[in-house]
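quick one before i forget lol
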Amino acid sequence: MTSALPFDDFRNLLDKLPPGDTTAEARVRTLFAKADKPRGSLGRIEDVAAWLAAWSGRAPPVVTRPLMAVFAGNHGVVRHGVSPRPVAATANAVELCAAGGAAINQICIANDLGLKVFDLALHIPTADITGDAALDERGCAATMAFGMEAIAGGTDLLCLGDLGVGNSTVAAALLAALFGGRGADWVGPGSGADAAMQARKADVVDAALAFHHGHLGDPLEVLRRVGGREFAAIAGAILAARVQKIPVLLDGLAATAAAATLHAVNPAALDHCLLASLSPEPAHGRAAEQLGLRPFFDLGIGHGEGAGAALAAGLVKAAALTSSGMAAALRG
C-alpha cells in the first residue's frame, strides 16, 4: 500500500532495511582461513569477497551481471557561474556515452560491465536552490522511484556514477546541510573552477543554506530542496539495491552526497555499499570519513562518469573469482 505523502514510502523502506547474510560472509572468511597461505595475506581482497557474499547471499560469491548506471541531471544554480563548463556539456557527455566514445564505455568493455546512462530531463534544469527548492516533493519522490528502476532486468553488482554540470556545488550544499559547516568547508575545484569561482560556489552554498534554513532537519527534505535529479535517482538506486540485496559500488562526490542523505535517515543504509574511488575534491575525503567509507582507489579522477566504480568492479569480480577458485581447490 502506498502513502499519500510521497516520502513516506521511502522512510518505511529505510526503517526496515534487510540485513546482510552473516552466514555467507562467515563461510567466505572461513574459506580464506583454511587456505594454504599466511592468515589475512590477501588483505582487503578477503574483505571484499566476504562483503560480496554478505550482500549477495552466495558463498563463495560470483558476479555474472554487473551494471554501471550513470545518472545525468542539470541544475538551475549554474546560472550563478559556479562552473567553467556550459550546461550543454551534460547532454554532450550523455551523447558521447551513447556513441560509445566516453571513458566509461572503454572501462566497461575492459571489465565486461553492462552500461546504462539515464538522461534525467536535461532540458529542464532543477530550480535555483538559492531561491527555491530544487524539486517539489512529488518530483523528488518520482525521481527516486525512477532510480529504483535502474536495476530492472537484474544485476548482481550495481555501480553508480553521475553526470551534471554544477553538481559539485549541489553536492557541497547537500553535505553542508547534512553535516554542518559553511560553503567554504565543502566546495572545491569541481571541473576546473579557479579561486574566484570557488569563492562564488561557497557563496552560493551559503545562500542556499540561508534560504532553506529551518527546513533542513529531514534528510529527504534536504535532498529535494538543495539536491538535484541525479542525486535523487542515485539515492533511489541505492535503496532499491538494498531491498533486493544487491552490492553497490559508489563513485564520485555526487554519488557520495546522495548516499549521505540515506545514511542520515538510517546509519545502516550504506552497509551494502563500498566506495570505489576518491575524487580530488577535498570535501569527498571528509564526507567518506563521516560515512565510514574507505575508497579502493585514489587515482585523481575528478569526473569520469563513474570511471572509478567501473574500475573497482574489476577488483570486486577478481575477489569473487579468488574466493570461488580457492574453494574449488580446497574441495579438490
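fyi The radius of gyration is 20 Å.
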